[in-house]
Known about the structure:
The chain is globular and about 45 Å long. It has one helix at residues 2-15; strands at residues 22-23, 28-33, 49-53, 61-63, 69-71, 79-87, 92-101, 106-116, 119-122, 127-130. By secondary structure, it is mainly beta. It is 11% helix and 43% strand. The chain has a five-stranded mixed beta sheet, with no helix packed on it. Strands 4-5-2-10-9 form a five-stranded mixed beta sheet, with no helix packed on it.
Amino acid sequence: MKKILLFLILTLVLTACGDDCYNKPQTIAFEFVNTDNENLLANGELTTFSIRDENQSSIQLTKTSDNKVILEGVGEYDGTKNYTFYSNIKVFDFSIQSSEFTAGCNGYQINKLTFHGVEVTDQQGYYRIVLE
Length: 132
């Protein structure tokens, strides 16, 4: 009886991470600041902004309570995609390189972000972007 119970538990554990298991890419968040390091959303200077991918599809953006912007649904592909940020202050391009993640569960991981035409610092959890 113990062997049957052990077999059933082991089978359940090994199949629990099957087709229903999916790892989303890590969250990408931006903080937009001026050259004095003031948050442009908090001070009201950044009033309109959007992001479009290389196919001109809009990327859903979520503003957080601490005046950062989360990019929704990016990085769920294998390869590199180009994006353009549009705002009332500045327009710039960036790309996201991601790859398939198959360790344990299926999904995608973001490998690299590349920015063009802006000063960016990685703040361990979000990217601080200087808009001038």
